[in-house]
């Protein structure tokens, strides 16, 4: 493993351990917080390699999410999302094939800023209007395609799909269960693309092996704090840190 491990300064290792911890928390308590992890990985590693390394960690996190919430999913909602998400995954794979590391890094930053903007709009818009069937269908295809694209390019589909699941008015357990199955299926589906594009490397896998313990701790901490943390305060902190990370990647 020492042969394959990338040579990184101590501060980078600390940041990657924190990022892995947040992956665990995002899978068992607070979907979307892994935008911080995305920013950290992309800032420390080459953008494409960071996508592959983080994907493996996300799949490990999906296992913990399924163990906790697998029985609460809305399977009909998942089936309806398949065409849009598949289109997004294909578009994302084509983009990764054509783009260089610099372009991918900038796109990750732009995606994170867009996700923050949509999240802020969702939080503060008027909630009186009821969506029609046509608008619900448009939302499903829009969120599904964007979710597939962002998860393929930057593993940033969490915030996008969380907004869609919230708009679907799922209960807490249904939300977490549906998200658990959605990301487990999508992340496994991304593996062939990622391997074919050379995003998953021996050094990335060696790095993941060192980071998994931090993820496991985060998963258990997430389960413990899910019903205790003040959600509104934590969301503000996550949004601020995500903006900082996105701006860093852009400039």
Task: Describe what this molecule looks like in 3D.
The structure is a single chain. The chain is mainly α. The chain is built from ten helices and no strands. Helix 1 (about 10-30) runs antiparallel to helix 2 (about 35-45), helix 1 (about 10-30) packs across helix 9 (about 200-225) and helix 3 runs parallel beside helix 9. The longest helix is centred in the last third of the chain and has 25 residues, at about 170-195. The radius of gyration is 17 Å and the shape is globular. It has one domain (about 10-250). Its main location: membrane.
Assembly level: single chain
How many individual helices?
Answer: 10
What is the share of helical residues? over 70%
Rough outline: globular
By helix and strand content, what is the structural category?
A: mainly alpha
- In N-to-C order, the SSE pattern is HHHHHHHHHH
- The first-to-last residue Cα distance is 34 Å
Low-confidence stretches: none
How many extended strands? 0
Proportion of strand residues: under 5%
Query: What is the domain tally?
Result: 1
Average pLDDT, all residues: 84
Largest sheet: none
Radius of gyration: 17 Å
Main location: membrane
Organism: Gulosibacter chungangensis
Membrane topology: Multi-pass membrane protein
Transmembrane segments: 12-45, 81-98, 104-121, 141-167, 179-200, 207-226, 232-250
